[in-house]
């Protein structure tokens, strides 16, 4: 019987000496078996530092001399067992067995073997076998294993981090450890995402920066724990909307798409509601998604050195800690030069959309026609709160970026922190009211 877990060996004599120092848990393989040449039962604890293992007697053979199965307090130390002792297990502590923890208290040597991070089912089976051995059950009826040294792969801690920064170090024939949580493969000249990465179910941070990747597979969104995705300095020309509709909505917190060739971002990007940091610097973006304000957890946004002429209307809903929009060719605001797209009378679709918003009717494809739901997802919002689909008046006005961010990088070399933002009106009446307020505020 073998158990893979972390083991901590504690001497019972420390409290009597006024010491409370604890041992250090180590990845180990604990075997319950019979040493060669005798009917005694023993535990063998193998660690990375002592692969041959330290042996602790569980039960002596009747009339044995006690030399087999000598216990150990630390690596390499061996203590003889007294001939009188047949049952060497003083007590089993199983209160936290459902958490994968248990303690075996031995008489000789006087130590506690503390097991942790064990598989609960395997631990219960192991303790049952240990209890039966302690009670004197015939060894032929026990699930004993051979007491042999453990393999390196069994006692080494699972690898959780891997960094590859050159093409020659990239594993072409050997796979990635399934336990990886942080993987960096930069400067490897990758033209596509390695499909082997898609099976790393515990991956939390994926850094593919400084490569030649042009497209992302939709299966990347199936990584259930991915919190950080770094695609800095690649050749991306688009970011898939399918990724934004995937499980990344629940877990992705950082997205770095800086130094690529992006001209636009999908509207679905605003469905990644867990995003805290977004970096879009040094692309060719002509506009930001119109529903950007839905990212209620977003705290840091950087879109410097793009081709943005203005910001979307929804931008004013953001509450950021830092914002960088330096180097964009923002157009001067034109509040008195409206782009009139009014349709009189409005279409039935326009009326339905406005009624849905005005009356706060919950919508979805199971309640309303799918094309109406799709239009509502991209609808503009008038100053009065009504929705605008294809009938509206559009202008650009000035907004001080400190209204949405605590720390703002200067927009230009002149020290400005103002930027133009789109503004929509559903009717001439709403626009005229805005115009009156604007003229009054400007004298």
From TrEMBL:
Keywords: Leucine-rich repeat, Nucleus, Repeat. InterPro entries: Leu-rich_rpt (IPR001611), Leu-rich_rpt_typical-subtyp (IPR003591), LRR_dom_sf (IPR032675), LRR_domain-containing (IPR050216), PIF1/LRR1_PH (IPR057437). Residues 1-59, 84-145 form the PIF1/LRR1 pleckstrin homology domain. It comes from the Eukaryota. GO terms for cellular component: cytoplasm. PROSITE patterns: LRR. PANTHER family: LEUCINE-RICH REPEAT PROTEIN 1 (PTHR48051:SF52), PTHR48051. This is LLR1 protein. It comes from Formicarius rufipectus.
């Amino acid at each position: 019987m073998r158990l893979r877990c972390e083991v901590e060996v504690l001497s019972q004599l420390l409290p009597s000496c006024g010491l409370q120092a604890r041992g250090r848990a180590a990845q180990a393989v604990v075997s319950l078996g019979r040493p060669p040449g005798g009917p005694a039962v023993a535990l063998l604890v193998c660690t990375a530092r002592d692969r041959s293992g330290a042996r602790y007697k569980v039960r002596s053979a009747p009339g044995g001399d006690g030399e087999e199965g000598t216990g150990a307090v630390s690596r390499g130390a061996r203590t003889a067992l007294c001939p009188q002792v047949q049952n060497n297990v003083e007590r089993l502590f199983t209160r936290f067995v459902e958490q994968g923890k248990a303690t075996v208290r031995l008489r000789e040597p006087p130590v506690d073997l503390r097991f942790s991070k064990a598989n609960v089912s395997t631990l219960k089976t192991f303790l049952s076998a240990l209890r039966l051995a302690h009670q004197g059950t015939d060894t032929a009826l026990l699930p004993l294993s051979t007491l042999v040294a453990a393999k390196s792969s069994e006692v080494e801690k699972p690898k959780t981090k891997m960094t590859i920064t050159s093409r020659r170090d990239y594993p072409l024939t050997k796979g990635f450890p399934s336990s990886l949580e942080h993987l960096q493969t930069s400067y490897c000249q990758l033209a596509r995402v390695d499909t082997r990465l898609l099976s790393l179910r515990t991956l939390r941070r994926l850094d593919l920066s400084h490569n030649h990747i042009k497209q992302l597979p939709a299966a990347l969104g199936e990584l259930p724990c991915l919190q950080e995705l770094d695609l800095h300095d690649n050749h991306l020309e688009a970011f898939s909307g399918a990724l934004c509709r995937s499980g990344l909505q629940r877990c992705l917190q950082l997205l770095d798409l800086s130094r690529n060739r992006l001209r636009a971002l999908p509207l679905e990007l605003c469905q990644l509601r867990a995003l805290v940091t977004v970096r879009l610097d040094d692309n060719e973006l002509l506009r930001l998604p119109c529903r950007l304000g839905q990212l209620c957890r977003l705290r840091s946004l950087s879109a410097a050195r793009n081709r943005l002429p203005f910001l979307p209307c929804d931008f004013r809903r953001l509450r950021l800690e830092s914002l960088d929009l330096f180097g964009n060719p923002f157009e001067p605001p034109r509040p008195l030069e409206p782009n009139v797209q009014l349709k009189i009378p409005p279409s039935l679709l326009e009326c339905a959309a406005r009624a849905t918003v005005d009356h706060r009717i919950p919508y979805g494809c199971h309640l309303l026609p799918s094309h109406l739901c799709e239009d509502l997802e991209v609808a503009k919002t008038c100053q009065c709160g009504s929705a605008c689909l294809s009938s509206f008046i559009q202008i650009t006005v000035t907004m001080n970026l400190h209204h949405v961010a605590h720390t703002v990088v200067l927009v230009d070399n002149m020290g400005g922190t103002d930027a133009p933002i789109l503004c929509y009106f559903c009717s001439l009446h709403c626009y005229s009211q805005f115009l009156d307020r604007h003229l009054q505020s400007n004298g």
